[in-house]
Specification:
This protein has 208 residues and is α/β, with parallel strands linked by helices. 20% of the residues lie in helices and 37% in strands. The strands form 3 sheets. Strands 1, 2, 3, 5, 6, 8, 9, 11, 14, 16 and 18 form an 11-stranded parallel beta sheet that branches. It has a 6-stranded parallel beta sheet with strand order 4-7-10-15-17-19, with no helix packed on it. It has a two-stranded antiparallel sheet with strand order 12-13. A hairpin with a 3-residue loop joins strand 12 and strand 13.
């Protein structure tokens, strides 16, 4: 009759088995993810002459890339995305992203004209970069299908906090920090920190 192992030894064996199994599962997922990104980049680079994706760039499976036929898209080396997000580049528009940039979940870039991003930029969750607005007139309201556009140029080494919004006709210099929730339009000099000065009102909860 087989002798039963002590409870502690059984626990140790189960723990080692769990770590080994989980480790293999994680490694397998990482390998599949890497292959997926290499194949995805290769297909895009071969099938679209106007789209270039650099080496080591990893676009997560949940990220939607919508590049129109006559758009010009250049994505640098070692660009990383996380979770879900979307890049849309329309016909005749350009999107250029430098090396070593990181986009957290739910980021959005919409280009009808031109969006340029320098090297080593970090984008927090929910950042929106959009180079166009709907046309709006006093008596007619929003004009369907008509837009105003303007370049967005972002320098290198910039950091964007969660839910920051970058609007058309904006030039952000090198080494800038855009705080969470800020809406930015215009020229921002190098090495500038932009924060949203909200007044928070605090009250004790009372029975009513």
């Amino acid at each position: 009759m087989k002798k039963a192992l002590p409870l502690r030894q059984n626990f140790h064996l189960a723990f080692i088995k769990c770590i080994f199994t989980k480790g293999l599962s994680f490694m397998f997922k990482m390998i599949v993810r890497k292959l997926y990104n290499v194949i995805k980049a290769a297909i895009i680079n071969v099938s679209r002459k106007n789209v270039s994706i650099g080496k080591g760039t990893m676009i997560t499976a949940g990220w939607e890339l919508t590049f129109a036929k006559t758009s010009d898209v250049q994505i640098g080396n070692k660009v990383l995305t996380d979770g879900y997000g979307r890049f849309i580049v329309s016909n005749g528009a350009a999107l250029s992203i430098g090396d070593n940039c990181y986009f957290n979940m739910n980021c959005f870039i919409g280009a009808l004209k031109n969006v340029t991003i320098g090297n080593n930029c970090l984008f927090g969750p929910g950042v929106v970069i959009i180079d166009n607005d709907h046309e709006f007139k006093k008596n007619l309201g929003i004009s369907s299908g008509k837009y105003k556009t303007g370049d967005i140029v972002i320098g290198k080494d910039c950091w964007f906090g969660a839910n920051a919004v970058i609007l058309r006709n904006t030039h952000i210099g090198n080494g800038c920090v855009i705080g969470a929730g800020c809406v930015v339009k215009g020229n921002i000099p190098d090495n500038t920190i932009i924060t949203n000065n909200q007044n928070l009102h605090m009250h004790q909860i009372e029975d009513r």
